[in-house]
């Protein structure tokens, strides 16, 4: 029964009746995207797992404050604010580790590897407002309306930011793609 309901209908059950099954169903819809968002924002699996749990508790604790609108936008607003707060509270620097394939594997797939690494660098180097909008669109699969609501901007500005992010990435990668051909 719960699987046929919209996010907002499910959350109304959670808010009004503390329906735990509705809460589990709702979070199952978003768990992978929410975890991926936390992982991109925080950079480590351990921190992402901790933040995912924090967000789950925050959503449940603040369930009465959700009154109208898109549940996804509200959820990702909480996730964004929680991750930003977590980053501000970090007292140590995160070690940079790079997961590289074995040398012989890298040699066989060096073109793919170089392109993939260049893409990751190009996304990471985007201005924050462009990167965040792009990631929400393509990694979190959020509609522009939810991106706009989460970031506190207009829908048209959300579209512009994603468009500009794609253009910047295209410019950055064009020389690398030329070299690989």
Mean pLDDT: 83
Helix content: over 70%
Shape: elongated
Radius of gyration from CA coordinates: 19 Å
CATH architecture designation of the largest domain: Orthogonal Bundle
Please tell me the total number of domains.
2
Elements, N to C (H/E): HHHHHHHHH
CATH classification class of the largest domain = Mainly Alpha
Q: What structural class do the secondary elements suggest?
A: mainly alpha
Major sheet: size, sense and barrel closure? none
Describe this structure in words.
The chain is 75% helix and 0% strand. With 181 residues, the chain is mostly helical. The chain has two domains: 1-89, RNA polymerase sigma factor, region 2, helix turn helix motif (Rna Polymerase Sigma Factor, Chain: A, Orthogonal Bundle), CATH 1.10.1740.10; 104-181, Arc Repressor Mutant, subunit A. Helix 6 packs antiparallel against helix 9 (155-180) and helix 8 (144-151) packs across helix 9 (155-180). The radius of gyration is 19 Å and the shape is elongated. It starts with 6 loop residues before the first helix and ends with a helix.
